[in-house]
């Protein structure tokens, strides 16, 4: 089975991603019409808990939205994300590491995606890529997974309280920031393959 690794490290948060497959699936997990995608999130220390399981589900849903699993029926793809350090914006870092691992593995995708985290401050201002301390001080934390093709939202999750208008403002800021992340992907791929 293919094994590819990608590291995503915006600021002081870093995540190592390993992708395995497509490989033969266990009969109990086999899907007749597409690849079965499994996402495992490992914390820096200790065993995965409820928070990791919740994030795994969000990551899996996002990846399933872009992976052309129908091209690999009855197979299994495993994406393992290991948190190396968490200084804030962890879910968006995991999303970016996952996308880079899928891209690096050469899996067929309908689009790329990126993660952007916004912190809504008590005064209503919006911070992108907040630190752990900024997250604690924020009124709400919003993380979006945004597709490259049309900046469509593939996944959104919110912690805290915000109005619909504030959520729309955060989304607009995240969609603008996505362009920078997609350019980073392009530059990374160009650097990697120019060395060959």
From TrEMBL:
GO BP field: nuclear mRNA surveillance; poly(A)-dependent snoRNA 3'-end processing; rRNA catabolic process; rRNA processing; U4 snRNA 3'-end processing
Main location: cytoplasm
Limits of the Exoribonuclease phosphorolytic domain: 7-108, 112-176
Gene Ontology terms for molecular function: DNA binding; RNA binding
GO cellular component: cytoplasmic exosome (RNase complex); nuclear exosome (RNase complex); nucleolus
Entry's localization field: Cytoplasm; Nucleus, Nucleolus
Pfam families listed in its UniProt record: RNase_PH, RNase_PH_C
Protein name (database record): Exosome complex component RRP46
Organism of provenance: Chloropsis hardwickii
Gene it is expressed from: Exosc5
């Amino acid at each position: 089975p293919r094994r590819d690794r990608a590291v995503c490290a915006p600021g002081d948060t870093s995540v190592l991603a390993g992708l395995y497959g497509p490989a033969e699936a266990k009969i109990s997990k086999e899907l007749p019409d597409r690849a079965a995608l499994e996402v495992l999130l490992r914390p820096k220390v200790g065993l995965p808990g409820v928070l990791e399981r919740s994030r795994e589900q969000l990551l899996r849903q996002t990846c399933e939205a872009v992976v052309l699993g129908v091209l690999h029926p009855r197979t299994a793809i495993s994406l393992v994300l290991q948190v190396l350090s968490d200084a804030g914006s962890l879910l968006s870092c995991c999303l970016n590491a996952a996308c880079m691992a899928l891209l690096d593995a050469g899996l067929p995708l309908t689009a790329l995606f990126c993660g952007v985290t916004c912190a809504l401050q008590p005064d209503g201002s919006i911070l992108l890529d907040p630190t752990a301390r900024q997250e604690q001080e924020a009124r709400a934390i919003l993380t979006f997974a945004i597709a490259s093709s049309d900046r469509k939202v593939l996944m959104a999750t919110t912690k805290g309280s915000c109005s619909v208008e504030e959520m729309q403002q955060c989304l607009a800021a995240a969609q603008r920031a996505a362009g920078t992340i997609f350019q980073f992907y392009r530059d990374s791929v160009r650097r990697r393959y120019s060395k060959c």
